[in-house]
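INFO batch 0412 | record 1 of 1 | parsing
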Amino acid sequence: MISLPQIHDLSLEVLEVEQYELALKNFVLFTQIDNKTKIIVTNKHLVIAFDFISKQNYPYEVICVDEVSYDRLYNKFVELKADRQMSDIATAQEEAVADEDDISIAEFLKTSSDIMTSEESAPIIKFVNSLFYQAIKKRASDIHIELHEFKGEVRYRIDGVLTKHIELDKKIMTLVISRIKVISDLDISEKRIPQDGRTAIKLAGKTLDIRVSVLPTFYGERVVMRILMNSIDIPTLEQLGISSSITSSLANLTQYSHGMILVTGPTGSGKSTTLHSLLQKIEDPTKNILTVEDPVEYKSDNINQIQVNSKVGLTFASGLRSILRQDPDVIMVGEIRDNETATIAIQAALTGHLVFSTLHTNRAHSAITRLIDMGVEKFLISSALLGVLAQRLVRVLCEDCKEQDDIAQQHLNHFEISEDTKIYKSVGCSKCNFTGYINRVAIGELFLLDKKIKLLLKDNIDDAKLEKHALKHGMISLKQQLQQLLIDGKTSLDEAIRIGLH
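INFO prediction complete | emitting C-alpha cells
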C-alpha cells in the first residue's frame, strides 16, 4: 500500500537497491528510516516517479519529502554514481591524464557548452561540472580541492567560511585536478611549481569566470578556484548593508574631481566589491575610468581594466604610470603594497585625478600611519587623501533556526552590552544549508580628513590620537556596529568575536 506522509528538513543517507541508477533517472530515491527501506519522492517530480514505481514491484513504503531534503539525497546519489564510475576507470587513466578525454573536456568548456545539459559527458567531466553547479547553488565564492595522505577533499567557502563538501579517493581527485588544469590552459605535466590560470563556464545560460590557482603541497597539488562576478552582479553600497550615513558621505566624496579614497580591511572583507560599487556610481560616458588590478575580479563593459602581470614586468606601479599617460579622469589601483605604488597614486591624486585604492589595515584611521610607514610624506597625505573606509563582512543568522544563546548572556559585560539583552546563536536548518547563517552584511567605519586632522599631521601623530579625534567627530567604530548587530539579534557572539569584537 502506498502512503504519502510529508517529511521536512531531513538529512537522509543513500541506500543502494537493485537498479538504483535507473530509478535515479526517474527521480526515485531510496533510504532507511527506523531501519526500514523507504522510497523517497518529491512533489516536483511526482508524475514521473509514480509512473516508474507502478512498473516495478517494490515492497517499500513511498514517502514524499520537501524539495530541499530531496535535493540533498539526490546529490548524494549522483556523487555515489560518479564515484563508482570514476573508480572503474581510475586505474586505467591514472598514468594517462593527457589522453583524448582531456581534449574533449577542453573543447567542452571552450565551446561554452551549458553544463546543465551535458548529461552524456564522461564521469570526471560530470563531477567537475557538479562542483561548479553545487558551488553556485550554495552561493560559494571559492572552491578548494586538496590532497591528503590517503584521500582528497573538496571544500566550499560560503559566506566567508570554509565548509566540507565531499571526500573522494586520492587517485580520483588527482584525475579531477588534471581535468581542471586542462580547462584552465595549465601544464598538466608540471607538478613542482605553482600555476595560475583562468577558465569560463556556462551555467543555466549565464557565463561565469573562474580564476584557478594550483599549488604543490607535500601530498600533491592543491587547487583553489575563485568564482568571479560580472559587473551586472555587483551590489550597490546600500545592498551591501553599509549604513545610509556612510553611503551618503562616500557619494559626496566621489563628486570630487581629484583626491584619493581608500578602502581598508583584511583579505575577504569585500574591499574590491565596495570599490567597484563606487566606480559604478560614477560611471559616465564623459569620464575615462581606468583600473589596474590583480586579478580583474569584476568584468565591466564601461571601464578599461588592466591585469597585473609580474612575469612581463607589469606591476601596480608600472601599470599606474602607463595609466597616467592615458588621459584618465578616474583611476582605481587594486592595492597599494609598496612605497612606489603609494607615491605614484598620491601624485596622481594631487594632479587632478580621482584615485580609488585599497590598503591592508584593520581600522580606517590606521591607513594614515600605514602610508607614513611606507615612506609617504605627511604633507602629501593631508593634501591628497579625502577619506578612508574600513569594512568587514558579518554573517547574518538564519531567522528560521536561530536560538537564544544562554552561555553568551553570561559574558555580555565583557563586551559592554547590557545583561538583559537577548543574544542569539546559530543552529542550522535546510534553509541555511545547515550552517546557521544566510548571507553577509557589510559594516564600515568612515574616517574623513578634516582640517583638524590635517593640522595634527604636521606634528607627530599616532593611531590613538587619530581614533580619539575621529570618534569625537562622529565616526561610528566597527566595534559599536558589531554590538548593534548583536543587540538587534542579527548575528551571534561567536561571529562578532571572529570578526573582531574584543
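INFO post-check: Residues 67-93 form the longest helix (27 residues).
INFO record closed
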